[in-house]
Structure formats: structure tokens, C-alpha cells
């Protein structure tokens, strides 16, 4: 059974695919035909609804979800015997703190995001036990998100503190080895100042907690302090009257206050999310610009460098503006390796209360940030569906890989009961996809982001 989970780590995906083609090419043909039939059937349903003038495709999909969206966030596959841990630790902003760090490949933790972990290395398990008994906080940084000139792995200097809120550890009676399973919540951004390895192999770092900064008023730098007593309270003043005039009363400039600017960018983001995909239900999201900016960072299908760029910004307004710029250009999702188009942004939907993109851990301890989409293109399947260790209770998963480059893309999830909807969907791992910009109206099978789409940022 352990061999079946190796492709979850991206191991032996190509070899297994080649062996599978040699031994049973008919199975691959059936899988390819199955994927093609899925796209054709759904397109026919969409055409029928549009021709009848009924609800849009997004509205139909939104109403058809009967799955309990609270289940994925519980991470029930870790077991029901995890111990709840109370308490919370908040560090002073702009302060220096010494933290133990965990480096995760392709995992960029965002404040407010839940991360499950399964740990097997003995020194890391021992470290987590000490963290649990102290302030329950450790740091998470990503590595291999960029390749330097020498081709060696690169560790990000921007990370996020994680606070444990659920934990259990076990010891094997035969080997005496310990393992730990836990869930933690991202709390505060930090920048690594310096790091070192202890004698026990633990990575310790001195980090600076990054502060959330508020943008000042437009004229704050040009207005003498003595004039402040003549200024109106921006909360009480009508936004339409916030203008600058000369001695004759002529308007020479419009002045917007910070509060209104924040409200404006929040409303623009919600409008863009609704236009991008109605199933995201942006109207139910928070109006707090800081929390909304982190939600957007977590749930957009960004690559590691793009997400780190957003987290490096200290202003929530700047993060939202940068995310808006990306969303205005992004309309497709592509394979990170060969740039083949695999999904449209309007195929993204939320099957979890936390949003369409969540972090899950497989039995080997590898964390996958998985984006749920209704359908996918240019994807082949490998193996048979299994319910074991399913991240979405009631669904069986099948390994999916890119049809062009055989890169591991994620999984196809199929409902095991007829009354569960959606009956099928795909979970694309964020580390294998990259956002692209659509350049033509017509999509053809096998199109790539190099030919039909333009990558937004270089990694």
C-alpha cells in the first residue's frame, strides 16, 4: 500500500506512467476517454442551460453542492484522538524573536491559514513536544521556491509563525520511534535575520516580526503640524466634501482619506472575486482589509514567488491592489513545468469553509496545498480510485498527471454515493500549477501558456 502513495510525493510518476502504458495501454485509453467525456458532458449541460435562458453555470454549481464544507477543515484523516490545545501567543511587531523553524517544500504559509503536519524525524518530533509545552509557536518557511545560479535549493527569508491548536504523538512499540500529528494556524509574518543548526539538528532562527502598516493621508507629508487642528475628522466628514480649494473657492484637488481608500479597495476586490467566480461568495467575506488580503493570498492559485511577494508587503491595501492586478490578467491555470492549460479560473470553486485552496498532508508527511476545480483539461489518470486517507470524506481519489509532460498535477475525486454532489471534481496541487493570462478566445486541446497564455511573473 505504501507504493501507491509514492506518486503523492511526485516520486516515480513518470516511471509508473510508462509501466502502466506498457502493461495496460487500454486502461490509459479508458482514462483519457473518461476525461474527454467529462468535459463533453458538462459542456453539453452548460449549453442546454444557456440556450433555455435558465440560471448560469456558476449558479447551478453553487446550488448543487450537498457536501458538508466543514469536513475538510477538520482533517479527520489524521484521526479523532488529537488533543485540543488552548491559548494564544502574539509577539510584538517589529520585535526580534528566536523561533524553531520548519522548512517545507512548496508550502508558503499565510496568516489565518490552517496547516496539518505529520512528522516522523525524531529530532523534529522532540522539538514539537517542547514547543507544545511552551508557547506552542514555531516558524514555517518555504524552500526550493527559486533556483539560484548554482541550482541548489533556496530558502525563503519571509515566513509565518504557526501556533499549534491540536496535537497527538505516538510511539511504535516495536521500533521505539515516535511520530506526531498536529494542526496549526498561521499567525504573524516574519523576516529571517539569521539562522543556525543546534547540536540536535533543529533549525533555530532569529526573526523580525513584520508590522502591519497603515497608509497615511495623501497630504500628511506636505501639511504643517500647526494646521492639523483645523482639519475635519475624516469619519465625520462627507467623502464628497473632501476637496482642496484655492482662495477663490476653485477645486484644485480631490482628497481621499485612508479609511475610504481601504473600503474602496475591499469593495473592488469583492466585485472582482464575484466576477472572477460567483461560487466564491465574496459578499460573505470579511470587510477587514488585513484579513481579506490574507484570504486572497491563501486562495488565489499563485506560485511560490508571487505569494511571497504579496506576504512581503506590509500594507493590506498594497496586497489587495497587487492581487487585483494579478486577477485582472489571470484567466487560466497552467502546468508549471510545460505551461499546458489545465483549467479555467471560473472552474475554481470552494468545497471548504476556508476557501477553494487548502493545505492537506499525505501519510508520508508531505503537505499539498490543493485547489478544487470542477473540471480539468489535458489531464491523465493513473491507478484506481481509493477512499483511504481521503482529504474529502465521501470521495475516492485517483492520481492525476499532466498529459503532456507527466508532471504530477493532483487528484481526481469521485463521490462514493449518488446523493453526494458534486459527483466529481479535481484537486490541483498548487506547487504544480501557475497562473496564466488568456490571449485568445478559442481554446484548443494541448495549447500551452507559452503559445496561448503569458505567464504573469518569472520565478
What tags apply to this protein structure?
single chain, 459 residues, alpha+beta, Metal Binding Protein, Guanine Nucleotide Exchange Factor, Chain A, Archaeosine Trna-guanine Transglycosylase, Chain: A, domain 4, 4 domains, 25% helix, disordered N terminus, disordered C terminus
Could you describe the 3D structure shown?
With 459 residues, the chain is of the alpha+beta class. It has 4 domains: 2-74 and 333-455, Metal Binding Protein, Guanine Nucleotide Exchange Factor, Chain A (Beta Complex), CATH 2.170.150; 85-209, Roll (Archaeosine Trna-guanine Transglycosylase, Chain: A, domain 4); 225-256, no CATH class; 263-329, Methane Monooxygenase Hydroxylase, Chain G, domain 1, CATH 1.20.58.1480. Helices cover 25% and strands 30% of the residues. It has 9 helices and 20 strands. The protein has helices at 2-5, 13-23, 25-52, 57-64, 122-133, 258-276, 289-299, 304-312, 316-329, and strands spanning 83-84, 96-105, 114-119, 137-147, 153-155, 158-171, 178-197, 203-209, 243-245, 251-254, 332-335, 341-344, 357-361, 367-373, 379-386, 395-402, 408-415, 424-429, 433-438, 453-455. The radius of gyration is 24 Å and the shape is globular. Residues 1-56, 234-241 and 439-459 have low confidence and may be disordered.
